[in-house]
Design brief:
- The protein is of the alpha+beta class.
- The chain folds into 2 domains: 116 residues, Homing endonucleases (Endonuclease I-creI), CATH 3.10.28; 97 residues, Roll (Endonuclease I-creI).
- Helices cover 33% and strands 18% of the residues.
- The strands form 2 sheets. The protein has a 4-stranded antiparallel sheet with strand order 1-2-4-3. Strands 5-6-8-7 form a 4-stranded antiparallel sheet.
- Strand 1 and strand 2 form a beta hairpin.
- The longest helix has 15 residues.
- The protein is globular and about 55 Å long.
- The chain starts with 18 loop residues before the first helix and ends in a 13-residue tail after the last helix.
Length: 231
């Protein structure tokens, strides 16, 4: 899609109301199919949608830990034309005194992200939610891979474990939403799933008998550095 002609570096630090910024935004239209499919998985994960003008436009905000820096760079490149500033480093001290390093960036605010907000934002609470049939109608194999890379992992992190169960950490969603998502994953991808409780919230487990099927769906899209999250 990268048809823009204005050098993004010229836009850094400029006001959103600057004419050059407006011209650049107007040169962008819609997300590519790859960006759209990936966005579904990313927002099912930790990415958030934000608006600063009561829903006229939206942006996506991303943040990951330092160990996922390769993934940060990958997603940044994927949304290249939609992001002006490079990922920025955030450092904080945990309650235990440990240094925590995260990397984050956000897209520009644009109407192209509004259809995603219509899928994910609850109009009553203005919070992220998952409506019925969202998985069924919008989650592709690419989106599944990004959901896993973003907020998935193995059920058992014991070094010698042979457990092939996959976890999708859905802590930010309601119990009913998680149950519906698990059922739609079962219907759409033929996975054997169950819902479990973790830290007082519901998570989705893809059972070990579906591991090879799960791999067949995501292997074309998962990046090398994120293979460590797999059993």
């Amino acid at each position: 899609m990268k048809m823009y002609r204005i050098n993004k570096q010229l836009l850094i630090g400029l006001s959103p109301n600057n004419n050059l910024v407006k011209e650049y935004k107007n040169s962008l239209t819609n997300l590519s199919t790859e960006q759209w499919d990936s966005s579904i998985g990313l927002i099912l994960g930790d990415a958030s949608l934000q608006t600063q003008n009561e829903g006229k436009t939206y942006r996506i905000k991303f943040e990951w830990s330092d160990k996922d820096k390769a993934y940060v760079n990958h997603v940044y490149a994927l949304f290249d034309e939609w992001v002006i500033s490079e990922p920025h480093k955030q450092t904080r001290i945990s309650p235990k005194g440990n240094t925590i390093i995260n990397w984050g960036f956000q897209t520009i605010s644009h109407q192209a992200f509004k259809p995603l907000a219509e899928l994910f934002i609850n109009n009553n609470t203005n919070k992220k939610s998952v409506k019925d049939s969202l998985i069924k109608n919008h989650l592709t194999e690419r989106g599944l891979a990004y959901w896993f890379m973003d907020d998935g992992g193995k059920l058992d992190y014991n070094k010698n474990s042979k457990n092939k169960s996959i976890v999708l950490n859905t802590h930010s969603f309601t119990e009913l939403e998680v149950i519906n998502m698990a059922n739609e994953l079962k219907d759409c991808f033929n996975f054997s799933t169950e819902v479990r409780t973790n830290k007082g919230k519901k998570i989705i487990v893809i059972k070990p008998e579906s591991y090879l099927l799960f791999r067949s769906k995501i292997d074309n899209y998962i990046i090398q550095e994120m293979l460590r999250k797999l059993p």
